[in-house]
């Protein structure tokens, strides 16, 4: 048990402990559990618990002081690519090397209909560094341009403002697609432009409010350019609001880019993000935040390939056929259909970003694999995540343990920042959106290596330049 921990509970009596909103916790916090046993294709899954008071601990965001940066291994160098942003959630490289930074806040007006919603909202505000004073404008997309490819931003332009909590973007054939909290919008946009003045067209609505619990909607462009794939998270933790509010959610949608016609491509994915196609195999991959409140070491978040028409268990089961005892009525028929994901990342790391390293300019040790942004835990009393990890791949599949690559976001009970989206920039370096530190970090080879030409996040884009 740690010497000191700050956790959020509720004004209740539990297990002989008087539990206030902020206090030293009591009971088993899972601190002795080896989280490395939950990394890989065969994670250790302890028995679930369903305590009245779930494990809760949040790191207070203090920000980065002058001269501070994250920590990277030998052979890499980290610098601030852009500062003074407002909740940067995702980064996306266009085929000409320009970088789009998507900044967003949670949609306003979401109803609070459970006591723990109040607790969660307090947690999220603390975890994102909420404080006094006026908020900087967010819900916008900013273009960062490195004209001479030296790893420094030479131009900065706000392309779009006043959006409805945007997250995912994709570009193809003169159109920028933006996934807002409730729709995919299409904007006329030619590479090189520094502003967008045209009104968008609606490609397709997506499940939105009034609850919109998991509001981030990511986008990926199919390698042939025909389809967009959109991630839509669940409207609850484990179906406790009823399944009617989950219609079309906990799923990845396939959307025809020209007509807007859509269908569910895969389902049972509680909160998928980081959609990206593997550059060699053309297979769609995602990272998924699994459910909370089954204990500090359940359920592992994961990285998985996305199979067409597959069902991944939510809410009735996790990691294949492991039944969630809280979900009623039970659905053994759905549990039987559930398939296990490819690769566990351990519990509550909050994996949100995914980028493949193929064709980057990073050292050989990072030449073939996936970078994953782990936003960090709140549903356990020993922190997990708060870093960027690298999972090596062989033949298009994970092969080996995840390695810590970008750390230093958290120290003790305080966080300087929290990584979200990741992408490879126009020079072949890794970019990290730090939504709590309001910074985009750039991790490059220490020897200054760069790619011969920019490669866009959506690989199909290179074919039509």
Quickly give the structural class. Answer: mainly beta
CATH topology title:
Neuraminidase
Counted by DSSP, the helix tally is 2
* Second-tier CATH architecture: 6 Propeller
Question: Stretches where pLDDT falls below 50 for ≥5 residues?
Answer: 1-27, 460-465
Q: State the end-to-end distance.
A: 57 Å
Fourth-level CATH superfamily: TolB, C-terminal domain
Question: Compute the gyration radius: what is it?
Answer: 21 Å
CATH domain class: Mainly Beta
Read across the widest sheet, the strand sequence of neighbours is 5-25-22-21-20
Task: Describe the 3D structure.
It is a single chain. Helices cover 4% and strands 34% of the residues. It is mainly beta. It has one domain (7-464): Neuraminidase, CATH 2.120.10. It has a 5-stranded antiparallel beta sheet, with no helix packed on it. Strands 26, 27, 28, 29 and 30 form a 5-stranded antiparallel beta sheet that branches. Strands 7-35-34-33 form a 4-stranded antiparallel beta sheet, with no helix packed on it. The longest helix has 13 residues, at 115-127.
Which properties best describe this structure?
2 helices, 5-stranded antiparallel sheet, 465 residues, mainly beta, globular, Neuraminidase, disordered C terminus, single chain, 35 strands, 34% strand
């Amino acid at each position: 048990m740690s010497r000191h921990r700050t956790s959020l509970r509720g004004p209740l009596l539990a297990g002989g402990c008087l539990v206030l909103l902020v206090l030293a916790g009591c009971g088993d916090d899972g601190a002795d559990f080896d989280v490395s046993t939950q990394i890989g294709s065969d994670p250790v899954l302890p028995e679930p618990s369903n305590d009245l008071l779930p494990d809760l601990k949040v790191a207070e965001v203090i920000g980065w002081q002058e001269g501070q940066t994250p920590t990277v291994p030998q052979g890499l160098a980290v610098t601030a690519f852009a500062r003074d942003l407002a909740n940067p959630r995702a980064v996306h490289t266009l085929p000409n090397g320009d970088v789009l930074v998507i900044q967003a806040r949670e949609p306003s007006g979401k109803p609070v209909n459970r006591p723990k919603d109040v607790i969660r909202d307090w947690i999220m505000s603390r975890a994102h560094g909420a404080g006094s004073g006026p908020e900087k404008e967010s819900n916008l997309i900013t273009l960062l341009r490195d004209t001479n490819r030296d790893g420094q931003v030479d131009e900065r332009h706000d392309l779009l403002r006043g959006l409805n909590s945007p997250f995912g973007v994709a570009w193809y054939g003169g159109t920028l697609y933006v996934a807002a909290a409730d729709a995919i919008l299409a904007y006329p946009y030619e590479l090189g432009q520094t502003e967008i003045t045209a009104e968008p067209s609606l490609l397709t609505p997506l499940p939105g409010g009034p609850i919109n619990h998991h509001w981030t909607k990511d986008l990926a462009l199919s390698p042939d350019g025909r389809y967009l794939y959109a991630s839509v998270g669940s409207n609850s933790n484990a179906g406790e609001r009823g399944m009617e509010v989950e219609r079309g959610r906990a799923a990845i949608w396939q959307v025809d880019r020209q007509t807007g016609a859509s269908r569910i491509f895969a389902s049972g994915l509680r909160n998928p993000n980081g959609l990206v196609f593997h550059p060699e195999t053309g297979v769609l991959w995602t990272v998924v935040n699994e459910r909370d409140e089954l204990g500090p070491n359940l359920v592992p978040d994961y990285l998985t390939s996305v199979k067409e028409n597959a069902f991944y268990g939510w809410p009735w089961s996790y990691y294949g056929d492991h039944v969630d005892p809280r979900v009623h009525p039970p659905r053994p028929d759905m549990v039987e259909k559930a398939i296990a994901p490819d690769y566990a990342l351990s519990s509550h790391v909050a994996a949100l970003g995914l980028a493949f390293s193929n064709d980057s300019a990073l050292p050989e040790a990072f030449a073939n694999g996936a970078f994953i942004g782990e936003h960090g835990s709140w549903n356990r009393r020993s922190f997990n995540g708060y870093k960027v990890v690298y999972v090596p791949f062989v033949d298009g599949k994970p092969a080996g343990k995840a390695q810590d690559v970008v750390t230093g976001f958290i120290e003790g009970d305080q966080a300087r920042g929290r990584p979200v989206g990741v992408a490879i920039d126009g020079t072949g370096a890794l970019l990290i959106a730090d939504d709590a530190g309001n910074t985009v970090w750039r991790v490059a080879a220490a020897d200054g290596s760069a790619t011969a030409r920019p490669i866009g996040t959506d690989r199909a884009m290179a074919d039509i330049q």
